Amino acid sequence: MTSTPVESQDLEQQPLQPAQQNHYGATLPQLQRKVHKKRFRKELKLLGSILVVFSLLVVVVLWASRFIPSEDLIQKYYEDVTKFEIHSIKYEGWQSDEDSEEGEHKELSATKVGTFNILKLRAKVGVHFDHDRAINIANASVNVQRQQKAIRFFSQTVVRTLCFELNNMTAYNDNETSTQGLGSVSIPQRVCVELQSNKTTELDLPILIRPDSQNVASVIIKIWKHRFKDLNLWSSFDVSLSKWGLALGKIQISHLDWDEIFNWKQVESYVDNIQAAFKEPITVDDMEIIDHQEAVDFHVAISYTTPEDIQKFLGFEKDAMIPSTSWKVRMPGCNEDDPILLQNAVFKTPTILVNDLLSSEATSLNISGRIWGPLPDKLLYQVCDSDEENVVTPINLFLNKVFNATESVQFEICGHSSESSNQSIIPKQILDKLLPSVSEAISANLTLNSDELVEQVSVNGLKLKWVQKGWGDKKLAITGEVISIVNLPFYNSAHSGAKATVSIQKIKGLTKLFHNNVHFITVPMDVWLSADSEILPTRDPSHNQLRVSFDIADQDVVVVDSLELSRCLNEILVKGQTGVHVEGNLDLMIDTRLGSLVLLGLEGDGNTIIRK
Asked: What is this structure's pTM?
C-alpha cells in the first residue's frame, strides 16, 4: 500500500492535537444532560443520607429523652437517697460580721457581746447515698423509674465524685400560721463527696451559723419536748458544683425538706438520754438554810454526771462556760397538774466550765437560792386530804417526802434570766430568749430520814394515878412534862442574830410507854397542845437543836397490857420508882419565816423514870 504524503511525514513534525473520542453518535446537548443527571443522583443520595441520619438522631433523642430526668426529679432523687449522720459537734465560739469578713476568730468580750452573732461549729459528719432507696420507692411510673436508673448509673459510673461549695443556705420552719426564718448557714470550704451507693464520705466541716435567736429558741423547745410533729423544717440554698477542678455550674434549690435528709431518730435519742439523766434523782450532797433579814437563803450542793454518749458527741474549747442562770421553782400541789409557783423565790446556778460538766467524773454544782417569806397560801393551806385528826396540805406532802429517805422529792424549775460571761457558749441575748421557755421536772433525794429528827423523848415528873370519872368510875391518868429534843437539819444559826426564827408552837401525836420491853400504856394526844421551844446553845452553828416541852395534866391513857401495868405500879409502890421506855410519834407545828409548817409522824424515843 502506498502511503499518502501526510502519512509519510515525520510524526515528530505533526502538530500536537487531542485525540478525538468516539461518542457513538451522541450529540453535545445529550452529553451535558447525562452529566447533570449523574450529579443530581449523587446530591439526592447525599440529601437522603442526611435525612436518614437526622431522622435517626431524632429517634435516638426522642428515645433517650425518656431517660433524661428533669431538674425537679434530680432534686427529689437526691433528697430520697442522701443521708447524714452527725458523729460529733464541737463548739468553736462566736464571732462578729467583721471577724467573719477578716477570717479570724475573736473571743467574746463583755463590752461587745451584743455584736457577736455568728456561731462557729465544727461537725464530723458521715454522708452516704442509698441509691436503691429511690429505685424501690413505690407508685413510681415506668418512665420515672427509667430516669432514676439513669441518674444512678450516671452518678456511680460517670461522675463518681462530686465537689460543691455551699454559697448560702437559709433555714425555715413552717408553723401553723406562718413561716419562721431560723437563720442562715454557710460552709467556708469546698466539700467533695462520693456518689457511689452506700459508700460513706467522712467530713470534718467548719460551719458558720447566723441564727434568729427567738425562732431558733422555739424550735429547740419543741425538740426538747419531743414535739417533732410540730416541726416542718426546710431550707433554700444554692450550690456551686465542680468536677476535676472545673466549674459545672450552680444549682438553686428553693425547698429542701429536712425530714428527707436528717435522721431525727438520732436527734431524739440524744434528747432522750439527756432527759433520762434529769429524771434520775439528784443526790443532794449538802444543804444549808440560813436566815437573811426577812428572807431565808438556801445553799445546795449536788453532783451531776453527764451521760457518756453526750460526752462523746459534744466538744468545746477549754475555757468555754455555761453562764450563771436564774430559775423559778414550781412546787407540787395537791395534783400533779396543778403546780404552785414560788413567786417570791429565785435560785441561781453557778458559772460552769463545760468540759468539767462533760467529764467522766461527777461534777459538783453549788446552787444558791433565796425565798422571801411567807410561802404562798395555796402551798401552806390548800386541803389535799383530811380526817378527824389531820389536814393534809401540799407542803405536808412535800415535807413528808423530804424526811423519807426512800422517797425523792419532785419539783419543777423554770428558766428566768442569765448573767454575762466572757466565755459563754451562748450570748446573753440569745440565752435570755431561750430560758423563759425552759421548764423541767427535777427529782432529788435528800438522804434524810424522819427518825433522825426527834433525837430524844422523855417525861419529867411522870406520874400515874387513878382519877375518879363519874359515879364509881375510875380511869388511869398520866401527868408530867414531855420533853423532846428536835434536830434542825441543814439550819445554820450563824446569821440569826441571837433571835430565834424557828420555833415549835403546837404538838400532838401518840406516846407509848414500855416496861420490861412490854408495851403497856398508850397516851393519845388527839388535839393540838400548846408547846414551848428554845434553840439550845451550840458551838457549831451548823448543828442546832430545839428543846420542846409541853404539859400533860391528867391526860387519859389507854391500857394495853393490864398485867404489865400492875407490875409497874407494884414496883413503884415497893421501890418508889421504876424505869420505862418512851416512844413518841409526834406531829409538830413549826413557825418559820416561810410560814407555819406542819411535820407529821416524827418518831423519837428515850428513857424516863416514873415516881410516886
From this structure: 0.69
